[in-house]
């Protein structure tokens, strides 16, 4: 992964930061955040000194349903007026295989910060038609939304709840190497 040495900027137009939650215990709702910015710095001499930062605008949540998105932005869920940003700041990187790594860091949602470790696969690098060197990564992790103070739910007549506690976070990242 020495080809990754340097500083990279996450390309929002070719990156998806998504999530999946169980709905009514029987289906999944998928969504994404459409407004975010991030950087990755890779230290070729000591890969463990590499770092990443990501800032997501909570208001950019998009599940393709405006009523649901409005509810998710409200105080019942993300309380975006009080907590407009979701942040991730890495605290460690471990190479777990020739093209895999674990990125550990602090995830902050609604002013609650907890450590998470996201396993990533490195999909390679390529030079695009505009001369940009790009790197691709894919990763996912499951968090418990209640750990971040997101506790709203509704009981179902048939038992269970409307929204799962466990939320899968999905990262499909295209990063451009800084000149």
From TrEMBL:
SUPFAM superfamilies: YceI-like. Coiled coil: none annotated. It holds the Pfam family YceI. It comes from the Bacteria. Residues 7-176 form the Lipid/polyisoprenoid-binding YceI-like domain. Belongs to the UPF0312 family. This is YceI family protein. It comes from Nocardioides aestuarii.
């Amino acid at each position: 992964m020495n080809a990754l040495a340097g500083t990279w900027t996450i390309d929002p137009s070719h990156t998806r930061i998504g999530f999946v939650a169980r709905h009514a215990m029987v289906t999944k709702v998928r969504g994404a955040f459409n407004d975010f910015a991030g950087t990755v710095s890779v230290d070729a001499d000591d890969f463990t000194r590499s770092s990443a930062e990501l800032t997501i605008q909570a208001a950019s949540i998009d599940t393709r349903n405006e009523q649901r998105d409005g509810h998710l932005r409200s105080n019942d869920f993300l309380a975006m007026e009080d907590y407009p940003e979701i942040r991730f700041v890495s605290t460690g990187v471990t190479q777990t295989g020739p093209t895999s790594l674990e990125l550990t860091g602090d995830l902050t949602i609604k002013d609650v910060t907890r450590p998470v470790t996201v396993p990533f696969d490195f999909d390679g690098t390529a030079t695009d038609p505009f001369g940009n060197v790009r790197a691709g990564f894919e990763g996912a992790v499951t968090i418990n939304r209640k750990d971040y103070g997101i506790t709203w739910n509704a009981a179902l007549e048939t038992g269970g709840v409307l929204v799962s506690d466990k939320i899968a976070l999905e990262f499909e990242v295209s990063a451009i190497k800084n000149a």
